[in-house]
Model the fold of this input.
Amino acid sequence: MAVSRPLIENYFVGALQMRCSVVTDTVSGDTIIIDGGAEPERLIAWIENWQGRGPDWSTGPSFADYSNGDLPKRKVVALVNTHAHFDHSGHIPDLLKNYNVKWYLHEDDYFLQTLAQRSGQRWGFDVPPPAIADEKLIAGSVMSFGTIDLEILHTPGHTLGGCCLRLFVDEESDHLFVGDTLFAGSVGRTDLPDTGGDFDLLSKSIHDKLWPLDDEIIVHPGHGPLTTIGEEKMNNPFVGLSAKKDVFSRGKYL
Ligand SMILES: [Zn+2]
Ligand SMILES: [Zn+2]
Done:
């Protein structure tokens, strides 16, 4: 089922400024955290008490509405990941300490997840021992997290288990959380170690799974600005419909 007027918040977290998205059904209060990879205290403080720095971007409502109590108490019902790179998953263990919920990841990234702490350390970051995902994201299905439904689009290429997550919204554009599969004007790197990166596969995933979607869908990439399916399909220099066939790219971002 589609949600009406969801509260969607984007937080750029950690040194790599990874986009963590927090989605709340404003009717039930059910909330999911997508890619809770860093700054767990900041996320928890805002989700629980509207305290601290809060999100960098949000669909609203306004702060006055929050403090008037016009929103139901938020209840985190699941953690969901687009993929297992450490910038997206490194601090999942800290969120799991606070929230007694299940963590969902595509199983083709389970091995990659075991490397999160080591990869983080290689970049000089302090990351706790990795969590083990509780539940598999099932490709091609619509999965329910409390009252929030997401369609799971498996889009390997940046990593083996990379997924894009579609949120259906009543009477407004849907939102698509793409991790590092697609960026505004770019695509995810395909040269990272132990990851299964493959540019041809990434390009095929995007052409097969994303370009058939509605042009108006709002795309939330793992790094950088928001975009839309229509904009990237037209103009993305690596995978857009006008991109040269023989363009090869390592993409960017982890
Ligand atoms: Zn990333
Ligand atoms: Zn990544």
